[in-house]
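Self-study notes.
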Amino acid sequence: MVNQYSPLEREAEGQMLMNRRSFLAGGLTVTALLAGCQRVSGPSLRLAMLTNSVPAQLLNAFQQLPQGSNIAVTPEDSLVKLYGLLQQWHRQTEDSLSTADWVSLADYWLAPAIRQELVQPLEVSTLTHWSELAVVWPELVRRSAEGMLNSSGSIWAVPYRWSHLVVLYDRDRLPRASTPLATWADLLRPELRRRLVLPNHPRLVLGLAQKALGASANSEDPAVVEGLEPFLADLHSQVRVYNSDHYLEMLLVGDATAAVVWSDDALPLLKQYRNLAVAVPPEGTLLSAQLWVRPQAIAPVSEQAAATALNWLDFCLGADFATQLAIFGQGTSTRLWGAERSQLPEPLQTPPALALAPDVADQSEFLLPLSAAAEDRYSQLWQSLRS
């Protein structure tokens, strides 16, 4: 099969769908943990993941469990590099295979990974915590062989953490009489003209615009969304830069007043910079999940190694993982979907405005794979906006 992206996937290839800043609490780093693992003999669980996707404390905790094992980590600083590893392993011959048991992948990349035969379907019936997940998660990862949502398809991944798109802003730079930012439409306010940072990602920008107008971010034809093109033109006039990496610097030096970012990137910043505030638009937002996928080109493993690999998935779906992920990684586990703020681990309760209320979650969406015709429509709209 030809390794080929759709137009929008090519647009996003050089960017991270989720900009993940390194955050490893307590002085224990993945690098140090990996070095320690390599000094221990015996079978290892091999993970390829973003450096802060799973805090080192949780990796260490798994190693201490009776059903755990040593962990060998291949850390990468971007989702694009992780996807590249899957492609690299797919091109290897069987004699030279050296892959991970599990690779961390964003849900946005799941469809092309399936189409390119980079990953394999999973058997989740033996996972004790799988049935405890909200229905949104199996629905997200049950796909056809073409990567499209399919209620009778196979399970292709196990989601373990998620985040939602928010508006992060410097309240001190708003006019004194201004009300706080609250909705997507507030991004068009005059005081934000040329002072807004948006993600450099077409589906995110076009998706939030559709949410602002009460439409789905996954509309097959954005042209039929009433008022979308004028809204996008007005939004574009507000933008100082489309950038997924340097919004914090721009907010701190005063080059921007607001930025659209992911919630788990925003949380540590809100606790460190008291002038920053956050809004989760009540009309619904965009969602992103990190998944564990199994490389297609994995070498045969022993029965013990296969059991250890499944134990890792169960560990990532458990209640202890959810609590420790919040404490050490300031991330939200899939177990916490639909929870009221008061039910979240304490680190996720503050600031109150950051939490995704259940009624807002019901109106929020993941960016789902589109048909080829729809991809072309979105690509043309994005090119028209940027030109």
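Second protein, same conventions, sequence then structure:
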Amino acid sequence: MNSVYVLWLRDLKRYTRARSRFFGSIAMPFFFLAFFSLGFRRANFPSLEMDYLDFLTPGIVSMVLIFSGTLSGVSIVWDRQFGFLREIMVAPVSRTAIVLGRTLGGATIATIQALILLALSHFFGFRISLESFLISLLAIFLLSLICTVTGIAISSVIGDIHGFQLVINFFVFPIFFLSGAIFPISELPEIVATIAKLSPFTYGVDVVRWSMTGFAIFDSAFDFAIMLGYFVATLFLSAYLFSRTEVR
């Protein structure tokens, strides 16, 4: 647990000392929220019985988690190139502890960014009760965990920084638009909606929206079960991939 804490604290300190990273991570989701809420404020979806801003805001908060969480894996690639990862790998620490520490660090950073955007959404008219906020904290952190551990799993098999960014962009944008963050997946063609339901990120966005607004497409318990199962499976997969990295 001490090793997990040290890796978590390292990631947190690196984030707080990089102001450009702090503001850059909030800028794009903020403009998404601003322009989508203004441009589509009168949008009317037949399957949506709520104000579009209330539907959109949890989706943009989830967008912060998806992009920030998956992109946090880039730190693994940087550490590999500059030799820090080698120092971690030779330490008498289990690979699961390494992955868990890096995952918790990236998830904490993504959660902080999401909460900042949630606070800014107040200026656009979005409101959330204290009880809903406490529940949404759990949902936000759980979604940030599965996003971060996914990014770490990808970074475990990609050693080039440019290749990692290309793969992540190719991976993140489809799952973001298919997750129901911007529009209900019920509005998608049947075959596309079926593909969206195969993504664990869809259930993550759904449970975040449920925790904030009470609206959900799936059962919230089912959402949590899918996310927990995916997180545990990907955590051990990442640990296995790290072990293979050590052998090479």
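Instructor comment on the second fold: The mean pLDDT is 82.
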